[in-house]
Amino acid sequence: FFLSAQESHSSATASVALRISSGMDTTTTTLLDGTSVLADPDLQEHTAKAGSLAVRGFFKWVTFEVLGHAVLATLCTGTSYVLFQYILNVENINVNLLPHVLIGMVLGVILVARIVNGSQQATSAAGSVIAFASTLRTVAMLSCNVSETLTINAGADHEKKATTKFRYELVRLLNLSFYCYTLMLKGLKLVTPPASLIPLEGGVMEAEVLSVVSCPTAMVCKWITSLLEEQRQAARITDQQVSVMTTELIKLMKVYQDTHGLQFTPMPAMLNGFSYFFVVVWVYSMAPVIAMMEMHDNGDLNNEGFGLGLAFSFFLALFYFGLYEAGKIIEQPLAGVVDLLPIDEMGHTLSDDLSNLVDDPNDEVPVFLPRPPDARNGKI
Fold first, then answer.
1. 345 has pLDDT over 80
2. What is the pTM of this model?
């Protein structure tokens, strides 16, 4: 117990040092009623991490494919300019831009609609992650109903050990379910669980089962249900209390199924193909139109209009192909969630909350997924 307290104290000290070194606001404010308050450090840490992930995604749409199309469209404009002036000797070209403008407007609306639709799916997936973690916290809180005092005729020492084992196993399985859930979000499959989540008995068999089944999270929820049934049969918890906790597990599975379903929701392939085809046709057909416009307005190849035409073609292609690339989030909404949410940080905070929410008077339930040492030293 004393060793655990020392570890908790050193962990808290390192966490405070991390927050101070990272520039977080640690100033205590006294309110008018005498209450002392402090800006939530965990919220600041998560917000900073989410902001950092968002900054990384600012220019994620600028891929080699998008840049390649932009450069190629610019070359087409320059080639058309030279072709019209020196080879075909075309002069006084008057181009009607209305068809291209109308098609470009409609195409822009379609591309923006793809982005909005994909963003809505990513937002829904992000809400599912938060709901999953919230349900786990609720189950941990409801586990306080399990107590050895409900069985008076059994040996006190035996009941105390059984209840302690239940708390330990429940929190471990809750952590394991969120860990498997985050792997599903990342498109990964569990082969060997972390050492901290391996049970004291039967760890090899459990790891083999999780590596074989198609839905490890669902299997962990099944084990939690079996664990609750053991406590009900031992009369450590009533039928009504088991029913409440089972309802929360059903909610947990529904959230999992909704999130998992986003991986298999058929993307609108026809819309994607239609959008990409007409973006290519419109951008590359716009290249000679831009060259004709510049020849009509400026005429000479040495004029500054030639350079402006090339620049206009480059940024026009970059804009439309960039819109198409940004809309690809509709194809993989879960990947967008992983890129924008600090999933690992959420797991560390959840593990700490689960350990604190469970009724653990002897401090025998550890934090199964603590923050790594490098994160405590300020390296996120």
1. yes
2. 0.74
